[in-house]
Design brief:
The complex is a heterodimer.
Chain A lengths: L4 H18 L1 H23 L14 E8 L2 H17 L3 E8 L4 H10 L6 E4 L4 H6 L7 H5 L10 H5 L2 E2 L2 E2 L2 E6 L1 E6 H6 L11 H15 L11 H10 L5 E2 L2 E2 L3 H16 L6 H9 L6 H4 L4 E5 L3 H5 L6 E4 L11 E8 L6 H13 L1 H7 L9 H10 L3 H14 L13 H16 L5 H16 L1
Parallel strand pairs in A: 1-2, 1-3
Antiparallel strand pairs in A: 3-12, 4-5, 6-12, 7-10, 7-11, 8-9
Chain B lengths: L19 H6 L1 H36 L19 H8 L2 H31 L7 H14 L3 H10 L5 H8 L14 H11 L2 H13 L2 H9 L4 H29 L3 H6 L13 H11 L3 H29 L9
Helix pairs in contact in B: 4-8, 4-9, 4-11, 5-9, 9-11, 11-14, 13-14
Classes of the chains: A alpha+beta, B mainly alpha.
Membrane topology (chain B): Multi-pass membrane protein
Subcellular location (chain B): Cell membrane
Organism (chain B): Micromonospora pisi
Chain lengths: 450, 327
């Protein structure tokens, strides 16, 4: 059926093409209408941009705020915003939040309709997409005159929000890559725990041994996991992106896939379908908490969330290899819509959420470690949740070994992430060789960032 | 997707048919009645224009642009037929999705109709409690394309799910159905087939319409049960079969929810459940290529229209209308 369809469809397209130009009268009027309507809508959408904002200092202002997350985060965020209102009674908030699933669909749709929220949460998956299309307000001038104070933030953390020389967002929290392991399982079998700084080869040998002794696969297979791949690349002095180019070659991808093919062949990982379960779903289905592997490659600040899904004790270390390849990453950002009518107020709210000690106390470590180091210090001292405590301790310990952060991912990053999963799974399910799959993956990556 | 919401029937705005004499004599009344008609219709008309027609026209326009959803409309660039060209010549994932969708529709739709007809035949008898069974069989369709049902399906057809436990009871070793690229699409087909309640109810209604004297006559002529089914039931039921076939085919091509939920919106494992509409969604909202996605939507609309026309043209050969009127 497949070879037969294209010519038929082609003919159809060609036919449409002819009629388009023969019936000029009707068609051109239709086209004119179709073009005019969007132009009018587009003009309306851009309308707010050049108007002077915040003319009267105490005029009532309502800002819309949109974020993803669970109910706990919603409560904390609402409390923090309420605190802002109590300090600035003229400013109120229209708060909208939802689960991660579907968040970016909605944000994109709101943006398309010219009705983007004044303040929204975003991650490095989409920051460049939004920044390069001028959806986000450039915060550089606010940073320069300290209306948005970044002096207490680790430099590499706020710079991770710089896209093409513009500060597109401010880190709402910090996290880092972490290898989470099932402590209870290992202790039960008197097995050694993984350590920071062990080599990839040692790690795979360790995992193979765990599989043998415990009958639980020693590690998830992270070959589909972009962050593990990224750290591994940086350990070879490569990177995911260099400037506007890819920082790796098909050869690198092949080596990465082969590393894990070896691990699978030795029984260090579960079978392809189980690996897929971990690849395709959210944090609660990570193999380390579903009991299908002894370790998972995650973000260290996800530990408290992971802990909710299991009774077992969990531990965290750095990814295998040199930990200086890891970096402090913005767990997520707050950005301001460039078309917002109250840009200055919105930036002030960002400043408040990131730097205000009281707001920091309310928000805690829900979005990762607080970006502001002073706030982080006081929050860390106050934290009581043991999982959260561990996550902070690990991150603090690792931070000393961190390298500089890479550039923020290029646009097309989310596509590359999705394609890496497909390419890795082609190999895991044994449908393609590492090198064939790597070559195909590289082609897609090139077109994704073009 | 807006493209599928075109109205299925055209309302009559002007009341009963008028003779030319009527029209000559009562122009003013006609106008007044017409106006009233349009006023009563206006909610529907406004809905049609605002929610269906205008968005459809806009999406047609967008299909000739590089619109990425984030850029303002005013900066959108006209790219002519580039999107269409890319679809037909250089997008491997597009053709892969077409194949997946065709496989899904070609296998799931006939099996679903067969299941619906089979069960309808069973439930067309006057047993005690047959109403209860009719209800029970219809239940899965009520849940329809619900997300909850797809989630249940995923957990049932996992490696350690209920289905494999059942197989294990008979000593058969299961497979990781939903997580196996060889089987994930088949699992979705089973889900679709299982929801045969809606066509079943329509079949039941059709079966009730078959005059019993035809069966009596046939059995007098010595026709057995099978012969009666082939020579009486099927021809008498053919308009209903045709109706269900068209409806379910269109439905089948639009399968989205279950594939979306099963693969967490990715079409995985390794693109095995990348249905056309899911691919369209990914192109529009994940890859931010709304112009290209619009082009895909329009080709999809045309393809479904063509398939429907083909079905209608074959209908002449096998659909019989009992009143003897040939269509």
């Amino acid at each position: 059926m497949h070879p037969a369809t294209p010519p038929m469809a082609d003919e159809r397209a060609a036919h449409d093409h002819r009629t388009l130009f023969s019936r000029r009268g009707l068609i051109s009027r239709l086209v004119a209408t179709a073009i005019t309507i969007p132009l009018v809508l587009g003009a309306a959408a851009c309308g707010g941009e050049d108007e002077p904002s915040d003319s009267a200092p105490n005029a009532p202002v309502e800002l819309s705020v949109f974020w993803w997350g669970g109910e706990a985060r919603a409560k904390l965020t609402e409390d923090a915003l309420a605190l802002y209102t109590s300090k600035h009674p003229n400013v109120t908030f229209k708060k909208t939040w939802q689960a991660n699933q579907g968040y970016f669909d909605k944000l994109a749709t709101l943006t398309a309709s010219g009705d983007a929220p004044d303040i929204f949460q975003i991650d490095d998956n989409f920051l460049t997409e939004y920044a390069s299309r001028n959806v986000t307000l450039d915060l550089t001038s606010y940073k320069d005159d300290k209306k948005l104070d970044v002096t207490k933030l680790p430099e590499s953390l706020w710079q991770y929000g710089v896209v093409d020389g513009k500060l597109a967002g401010i880190a709402g929290g910090e996290n880092t890559q972490g290898l989470v392991y099932n402590k209870t399982l290992l202790q039960k079998h008197n097995l050694p725990e993984p350590t920071t700084g062990m080599s990839w080869a040692d790690f795979i040998t360790w995992a193979e041994n765990v599989s043998k002794v415990t009958k639980v696969p020693g590690t998830m297979d992270p070959s589909a996991d972009y962050k593990a791949f990224w750290v591994w690349l940086r350990q070879q002095n490569k990177d995911l992106y260099k400037g506007k180019e890819l920082g790796f070659t098909a050869d690198d991808v092949t080596k990465w896939f082969e590393l894990w093919k070896g691990a699978r062949d030795r029984g260090a990982t579960p079978t392809a379908d189980v690996i897929h379960e971990g690849n395709a779903t959210d944090i609660t289905k990570q193999l380390v908490v579903t009991g299908k592997a002894a370790t998972s490659f995650v973000w260290a600040n996800q530990l408290p969330e992971l802990k909710k899904a299991t009774k077992d004790e969990l531990g965290v270390v750095a990814y295998p290899g040199d930990p200086s390849a890891q970096w402090a990453r913005a767990a997520l950002y707050y950005s301001v819509f460039r078309g917002s009518e109250h840009k200055d107020v919105a930036v002030d709210v960002l400043n408040f959420l990131v730097n205000d000690p009281e707001a920091g106390k309310i928000l805690g470590t829900d979005r990762g470690l607080p970006s502001n180091l002073d706030v982080r210090k006081s929050v860390s001292e106050a934290v009581t949740d043991p999982a959260m405590k561990l996550s902070i301790a690990v991150e603090t310990e690792l931070a000393a070994k961190f390298g500089p952060s890479p550039q923020v991912p290029l646009k097309g990053h989310s596509k590359i992430r999705a394609e890496l999963i497909k390419a890795a799974e082609e190999v895991q399910y044994g449908r393609q060789t590492p090198s064939a799959s790597a070559a195909a993956f590289l082609e897609i990556c090139k077109s994704a960032i073009a | 997707m807006a493209l599928t919401t075109a109205p299925s029937s055209t309302p009559r705005a002007t009341g009963p048919v008028r003779t030319p004499a009527d029209r000559r004599g009562s122009g003013r009344i006609w106008q007044r009645e017409g106006l009233a008609g349009y006023v009563f219709l206006s909610p529907w008309l406004i809905g049609l224009l605002a929610i269906t027609a205008v968005p459809m026209l806009l999406s047609l326009y967008l299909s000739f642009t590089n619109y990425d959803i984030l850029t303002p409309w005013s900066e959108v660039e006209w790219v002519g037929l580039t999107n269409y060209e890319r679809m037909f010549t250089s997008d491997a994932s597009y053709w892969h999705a077409v194949q997946v969708t065709l496989a899904f529709a070609l296998i799931a739709v006939p099996l679903k109709l067969a299941a619906a007809l089979g069960v309808a035949l069973l439930l067309n008898r006057a047993w005690r409690g047959v109403g209860l069974f009719r209800g029970l069989f219809y239940l899965p369709s009520l849940l329809g394309g619900s997300v909850a049902l797809a989630i249940v399906w995923v957990s049932m057809f996992n490696r350690d799910g209920a289905f494999n436990s059942l197989l294990g009871f008979f000593g058969i070793e299961g497979k990781p159905w939903v997580n196996d690229p060889e089987w994930a699409l088949e699992t979705l087909m089973v889900l679709a087939i299982w929801q045969f309640g809606a066509p079943m109810v329509i079949f039941l209604a059709g079966l009730k319409q078959v005059p019993t004297e035809l069966y009596e006559a046939a059995s007098v002529d010595g026709a057995g049960k099978i012969r009666q089914f082939v020579s009486v039931t099927l021809p008498m039921l053919s308009p209903v079969i045709f109706f269900n076939l068209v409806l379910e085919t269109i439905n089948g091509f639009q399968g989205f929810t279950s594939a979306f939920v099963l693969s967490n919106g990715t079409g995985g494992p390794v693109d095995s459940t990348l249905m056309y509409t899911l691919n369209l969604y990914i192109k529009g909202f994940v890859d931010l290529e709304m112009g290209y996605a619009s082009a895909m939507a329009w080709v999809f609309l045309l393809a479904i229209a063509v398939i429907t026309v083909v079905l209608f043209s074959t209908g002449r050969f096998w659909v019989h209308y009992s009143d003897g009127e040939e269509r």
